[in-house]
Every structure is written in C-alpha cells, then in structure tokens.
C-alpha cells in the first residue's frame, strides 16, 4: 500500500511539533504521517505505542481493502473515499499537440464533508438537529 499522508495544520490533534526545525514548509504546516496518527492515539486513548501503531495500521488496511473491492469508505464529519472507473480516452501533449491514448483506469476520489469544509474555512458548522 502507498504511504498514507494528510497535509494538516499544526492545530490538529497529535504531537505539537514534528521536530523538523529545518523544514522549508510555511510556518505551522506539517505532514501528518502514520507515526503522527499512532502517537495521537497513544496520547489520547492510552494504548501502548505498539498497540496504537497496530490500530492505525489496521484502520488503514481495512480502508484499503474496501476501496480495492470497489466499496466506498465514509468517515462521519470528515468525508468519503470512493473509486471511480475512467474509460480509455485520447489525451494531447500540450507542448507538441501529439495525441496519446490514455488507458482506462480506476482513480481514488475524496469528497470532504460539509462540516470539514466549514472547519477548514474557519466557520462554525453545527450538525443538523443540534
């Protein structure tokens, strides 16, 4: 499986600092990795570091299995992942204008929830019925 990473602001749950002081990314930004997620589980849930890493790995593996099988993965208040089929088509090299066939393939699509969109934009979004 490919390395799963999410770009996130430093105010998201998890360790306060990744320890990358020589980082060339803008101040306050870092990449959330499996290790960061496992550390957050360790700190907030109280499992051992080894159990936390195994839990994160199990969740990501289960999500991967469902996506490979063509099922959608929906995470409440976060968004949904799904796999779409794209048929074969003819593409064009923008520099030379030469037509090139693009093979059919499956692509991963993420659609964020309205709550996540609102939080990213600094808005308060309540759930319906609250």
Largest sheet: 3 strands, antiparallel
What share of the residues does DSSP label as strand, in percent?
25-35%
Order of helices and strands: EEHHEEEEEH
Global mean pLDDT: 82
Pick out the low-confidence regions.
1-23
- Strands of the biggest beta sheet: in what spatial order? 3-4-7
Helix content: 25-40%
Radius of gyration, in Å, reads 19 Å
Summarize, please.
By secondary structure, this protein is α+β, with helices and mostly antiparallel strands. It has three helices and seven strands; from the N terminus they run ββααβββββα.
Protein described:
With about 130 residues, this protein is an alpha+beta fold. The protein has helices at about 35-45, 50-70, 115-120; strands spanning about 5-10, 30, 75, 80-85, 90, 100, 105-110. The strands form three sheets. Strands 3-4-7 form a three-stranded antiparallel beta sheet. Residues about 1-25 have low confidence and may be disordered. The protein folds into two domains: about 1-15 and about 25-70, no CATH class; about 80-125, IHF-like DNA-binding proteins (HU Protein, Chain A). The protein has three helices and seven strands; from the N terminus they run ββααβββββα. It is extended. The N and C termini lie far apart (about 40 Å).
């Amino acid at each position: 499986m490919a390395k799963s990473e999410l770009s996130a602001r430093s105010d998201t749950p998890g360790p306060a600092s990744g320890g990358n002081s020589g980082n060339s990314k803008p101040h306050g930004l870092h990449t959330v990795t499996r290790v960061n997620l496992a550390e957050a589980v360790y700190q907030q849930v109280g499992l051992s570091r080894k159990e936390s890493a195994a839990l994160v790995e199990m969740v990501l593996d289960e999500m991967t299995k469902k996506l490979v099988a063509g099922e959608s993965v929906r995470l409440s208040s976060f968004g949904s992942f799904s796999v779409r089929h794209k048929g074969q088509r003819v593409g064009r090299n923008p520099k030379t204008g030469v037509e090139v066939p693009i093979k059919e393939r499956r692509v991963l699509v993420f659609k964020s929830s309205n709550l996540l969109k609102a939080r990213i934009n600094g808005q308060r979004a309540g759930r319906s019925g609250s």
